[in-house]
Specification:
The complex is a heterodimer of chains A (294) and B (255). Chain A is an alpha/beta fold. Chain A is built from nine helices and twelve strands. Classes of the chains: A alpha/beta (294), B mainly alpha (255).
Chain lengths: 294, 255
């Protein structure tokens, strides 16, 4: 296991302020475009914008011109056995160059194997070998994009034999590649519930200074197994348990850009705006207390 | 080890059986939990196809569409990380799908939905400015090599499906459900941010195909058929100009 030197990265020109944002859905394009709320930013899955042209790209351009943006990839398959697909990486770079997002993130997960794309975030084995591969893949992405990316912790459903814990896997990736972390608090809650571990201890084991963004979303009980298995559906409101975990996290590490994610059962824009405003209030209260302590 | 794990996992996703994964799983009853991943993968493929083929979905209903889409996924899983254009070949697959054999027009409906999808996400391209054409001498026209808009698609249907297709896309029950025999040539393209569609005559279709080869305007008009005349030429040329079908004049790019 060769240790790597950290490379210097080009920092984004205007880093994202630690305010609250929303996942951008086509259903909400017009409202998003017209919403000039202070500090509001939007996050998109770049895969949804890898078209040759058309109205989606035009909307994205219009919304980007008045809002900060983050790109959250789902298709690089960094936790796979194969290196990231160079064609996909080139398409991502083209989008990053065109829209200049403040943050770019991906997952500790895989989705591509032997030429097939499985449209899901599949579990990476927590082994030294998988860690070596993963770090190489993160290095490659950061090299091509010329900037540091954030890596999101997965939602886990099946306990698997582990050589290292997930928190150690992520911490070691940060140390070797210089990447940052995107902490999805809902994923922490879901995984801790499903795999029976302590979510607070998990969060405390991550390097706080590397956390560059936080995700909040809803989950649902599995249709077949009920409450024994929570599924990260992004199809419901953020639960009280997740809000509580979030409040404790930012109290400890400080305010971070925070996103409300909703990808299924998409409600009216104002409904997710209210959740976003709740996160914004929590962030503001953490920041005002931080100022008082100075 | 990593590659063996990924092989076993990928195989289990496709087959639905987790026997090959036992070496990595750490609990009894893991198969039930593994089903979460398989369900996510299968469902997301079905939903991507449902979104891409709304008319097919409306005509056959959700309960028929889901197993059809699942069967397509088993035969042709996605190979690209952008699911937006997933479904290439769905029309031919439908024509081999036995339960759909009573709906012989369904592959053409799928072709129309596909053309709509490709037109919607196709490359942006500024149409040819009519004022620029107006400056040309009439004698220049036959030699023009008119470039067609990159989103332009033509679907040739065996039956008169156009109204039925549009009603299905809008989730309406069509007023006239009788499908009259007779071919229809349907053009689908994007103009001013909107996907446009219309029926054109067989001669008009031949004319556009000839332009696409590419052939100069004069030859393309000749190819369109012996019955075409000045009025036909004026109509198809004007139609292309006013609807954004032409994007370039080439080759000399004017004088």
């Amino acid at each position: 296991m060769a240790s790597r030197n950290r490379r210097p990265f080009v920092l984004p020109q205007a880093p994202l302020s630690p305010t609250a944002g929303l996942g951008l859905k086509p259903e909400h394009y017009r409202e998003a475009l017209e919403d000039r709320t202070d500090g509001l930013w939007f996050e998109v899955h770049p895969e949804n914008y890898m078209a040759d042209g058309g109205p989606r790209l035009a909307w994205l351009e219009a919304i980007r011109s008045d809002h900060d943006m983050s790109m959250h990839g789902v298709g690089l398959s960094l936790g796979g056995a194969e290196p990231p697909n160079e064609r996909h990486l080139a398409r991502l770079k083209a989008l990053v160059d065109r829209y200049q997002p403040a943050l770019v993130s991906e997952h500790l997960a895989w989705s591509v194997h032997s030429g097939v794309y499985f449209n899901d975030l599949l579990p990476t084995p927590m082994t030294q070998e998988a860690l070596d591969h993963f770090c190489r893949h993160v290095d490659r992405v950061q090299e091509v994009l010329g900037r540091k990316i954030l890596i999101e912790n997965p939602s886990r459903y099946i306990p698997m034999r582990e050589e290292i814990s997930e928190a150690d896997f992520l911490s070691e990736t940060v140390r070797r590649t210089g990447c940052g972390l995107l902490v999805d608090v809902n994923n922490v809650h879901v995984s801790a519930h499903n795999l029976a571990y302590d979510p607070i201890a998990y969060l405390e084991a991550l390097p706080a200074e590397a956390i560059g963004e936080i995700h909040l979303a809803g989950h649902e009980a599995d249709e077949a197994l009920g409450e024994a298995l929570l599924i990260d559906t992004h199809g419901a409101a953020v639960t009280v348990a997740v809000w509580t975990l979030y409040a404790k996290l930012i109290e400890r590490i400080g305010a971070r850009p925070t996103l409300i994610e909703r990808d299924t059962n998409i409600p009216a824009y104002n409904v997710i705006r209210e959740e976003r405003d709740e996160a914004a209030r929590l962030l503001a209260s953490v920041q005002s207390r931080a100022v008082q302590h100075v | 080890m990593s590659e063996t794990f990924h092989n076993a996992f990928a195989e289990a996703l496709q087959s639905g059986t987790t026997d090959g994964l036992n070496a990595w799983l750490d609990m009894p009853g893991a198969a039930e939990r593994f089903a979460v991943y398989r369900n996510n993968v299968v469902r997301s493929a079905i939903e991507a196809l449902r979104a891409a083929y709304p008319s097919v979905n409306h005509i056959v209903g959700e309960n028929f569409f889901s197993p059809l889409a699942k069967a397509f996924w088993e035969a042709s899983p996605p190979v690209d990380q952008t699911m937006t254009l997933y479904g290439d070949g769905f029309d031919s697959f439908i024509s081999t799908y036995a339960p759909a054999s009573r709906l012989p027009y369904l592959p053409d409906i799928a072709r129309l939905d596909r053309a709509w999808l490709e037109a919607h996400h196709g490359a942006d391209c500024e149409p040819l400015n009519a004022a620029r054409v107006a400056e040309l001498a009439p004698s220049d026209l036959p030699a023009l090599l008119l470039g067609l808009h990159p989103t332009l698609r033509r679907v040739e249907c065996e039956l008169s499906l156009f109204d039925f297709w549009l009603a299905s896309r809008a989730r309406r029950v069509p007023e006239e459900t009788r499908l009259v025999p007779g071919r229809q040539n349907i053009l689908i393209w994007r103009h001013r941010g909107q996907v446009c569609h219309e029926i054109v005559t067989a001669e008009h279709a031949v004319f556009l195909d000839a332009l696409a080869t590419p052939q100069p305007l004069g030859q393309a008009l000749d190819r369109a058929g012996p019955d075409t005349d000045e009025r036909f030429a004026g109509r198809v040329f004007g139609h292309g100009l006013s609807n954004g079908l032409f994007v370039s004049l080439d080759p000399k790019d004017l004088l």
